[in-house]
């Protein structure tokens, strides 16, 4: 398998999941400005939409979209419990979280990442994003992870997205200034997830430590 990634982007989520599962995969770094891979290949030939992640399987087929990719990967080793069993209410709860993170958090960050282009729209988007994180903080009360006591692919996705508000390099580049100092549950969750060996391995590989 190959995972096409951009350091610090949402592709950090499947990168973490690969590590959690102990799966072998070739990591292919993509330059998001030039749309070129490390060896100079045209990334638009891999994904005409230009973004990451893309998971290329051994048969050459490719899977797009992080929430689909992480579920596919976790289903390769269901015994590790990174996703609940298909057809259960717990699995639908997982998909509920993945949909929420995609539509409310991931997309909510985009205007902040390109604040110069978004202009005054940032003033509308930022408070809404902060409210969504405050809601997540409430859901984490009394829980170790999003679905309870078990780390799942939803936690990997939220970690990648929360990192956009935490990372000093990102704030200086894109002005994505979201602070979590008052969200004690979210902060404790983030700090705990960051210490997982699979997460630290991914951060070090992507140069984010």
What is the CATH class designation of the largest domain?
A: Mainly Alpha
How much helicity do the residues have? 40-55%
According to DSSP, the number of beta strands is 5
Rg on CA atoms, Å? 17 Å
How would you sum up the global shape? globular
Spell out the key features of this protein.
209 residues; alpha+beta; Glutaredoxin; Glutathione S-transferase Yfyf (Class Pi), Chain A, domain 2; 2 domains; five-stranded mixed beta sheet; globular
How does this model look, in words?
This protein is of the alpha+beta class. It has 2 domains: 2-80, 3-Layer(aba) Sandwich (Glutaredoxin); 89-196, Glutathione S-transferase Yfyf (Class Pi), Chain A, domain 2 (Up-down Bundle), CATH 1.20.1050.10. Helix content is 53%, strand content 9%. It has a 5-stranded mixed beta sheet, covered by helices on one side. Helix 1 (12-21) packs across helix 6 (153-166) and helix 3 (89-113) runs parallel beside helix 6. Mean pLDDT is 91; it is low at 168-175.
Write the layout of secondary structure elements.
Blueprint (H helix, E strand, L loop, with lengths): L1 E4 L6 H10 L4 E6 L4 E2 L16 E3 L5 E3 L1 H11 L12 H25 L1 H4 L2 H19 L13 H14 L1 H7 L9 H11 L2 H9 L4
Parallel strand pairs: 1-2
Antiparallel strand pairs: 1-4, 2-3, 4-5
């Amino acid at each position: 398998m190959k995972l096409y990634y951009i350091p610090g982007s949402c592709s950090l989520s499947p990168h973490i999941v690969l590590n959690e599962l102990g799966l072998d995969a070739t990591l292919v770094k993509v330059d998001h400005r030039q749309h070129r891979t490390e060896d100079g290949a045209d990334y638009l030939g891999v994904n005409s939409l230009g973004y990451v992640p893309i998971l290329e399987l051994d048969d050459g087929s490719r899977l797009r979209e992080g929430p689909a990719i992480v579920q596919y990967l976790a289903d390769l080793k269901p015994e590790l419990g990174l996703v609940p069993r298909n057809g259960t209410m717990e699995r639908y709860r997982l998909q509920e979280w993945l949909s929420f993170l995609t539509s409310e958090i991931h997309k909510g960050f985009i205007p902040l990442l390109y604040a110069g282009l978004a202009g005054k729209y940032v003033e509308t988007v930022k408070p809404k994003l902060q409210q969504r994180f405050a809601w997540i903080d409430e859901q984490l009360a009394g829980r170790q992870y999003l679905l309870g006591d078990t780390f799942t692919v939803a936690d990997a996705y939220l970690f990648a997205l929360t990192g956009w508000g935490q990372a000093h390099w990102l704030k200086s580049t894109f002005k994505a200034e979201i602070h979590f100092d008052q969200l004690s549950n979210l902060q404790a969750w983030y700090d705990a997830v960051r210490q997982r060996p699979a997460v630290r391995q991914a951060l070090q590989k992507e140069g984010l430590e």
